[in-house]
Amino acid sequence: MHTHADEDEFLYVLEGRFQFRLEDEISEGPAGMCMYIRRGVPHTWRNTSGGPARMLAVFTPAGMEPFFEQFAAHAGAPTAPEAFRTLGGEAGMTVVGPPLGGSA
């Protein structure tokens, strides 16, 4: 779970299926589902497809690109949670709780 200090976020599921948590509400997201997240609102998601899935994320205003470029080096690694917290903090994100189905 995290928040963005300066950006609103729009998510669109392109392929697969995701589970989303927005504040205290959990919902399922099949392909074609979209979600708008205002800055400051705690949220997270996870791929529940059982295989690869794709999602389009749009931030307004722009500026999150460096976070994703840097975090990609940690994807799937044991260092990923700490990298998310550290790199996210540098990008204006605050971790406020665990990911879905796990602990942070």
Helix content: 10-25%
Structural class: alpha+beta
Oligomer: single chain
Distance between the termini: 9 Å
CATH hierarchy: architecture: Sandwich
What is the domain total for the residues? 1
The order of strands across the largest sheet is 5-2-7
Average pLDDT, all residues: 94
Order of helices and strands: EEEEEEEHHE
Radius of gyration equals 13 Å
Look at the structure and name the CATH superfamily: Jelly Rolls
Strand content: 35-45%
Instruction: Say what the CATH topology is.
Output: Jelly Rolls
Tell me the major beta sheet.
3 strands, antiparallel
Q: How many strand units?
A: 8
Overview of this protein structure:
There is one protein chain. This protein has helices spanning 65-71, 80-90; strands at residues 2-4, 8-15, 17-22, 25-30, 34-37, 43-47, 54-60, 93-95. The chain has a single domain (2-95), classed as Sandwich (Jelly Rolls). Strands 5-2-7 form a 3-stranded antiparallel beta sheet, with no helix packed on it. The radius of gyration is 13 Å and the shape is globular. The longest helix is centred in the C-terminal third of the chain and has 11 residues, at 80-90. The protein contains 2 helices and 8 strands. Strand 3 and strand 4 (25-30) form a beta hairpin. It has 104 residues and is of the alpha+beta class.
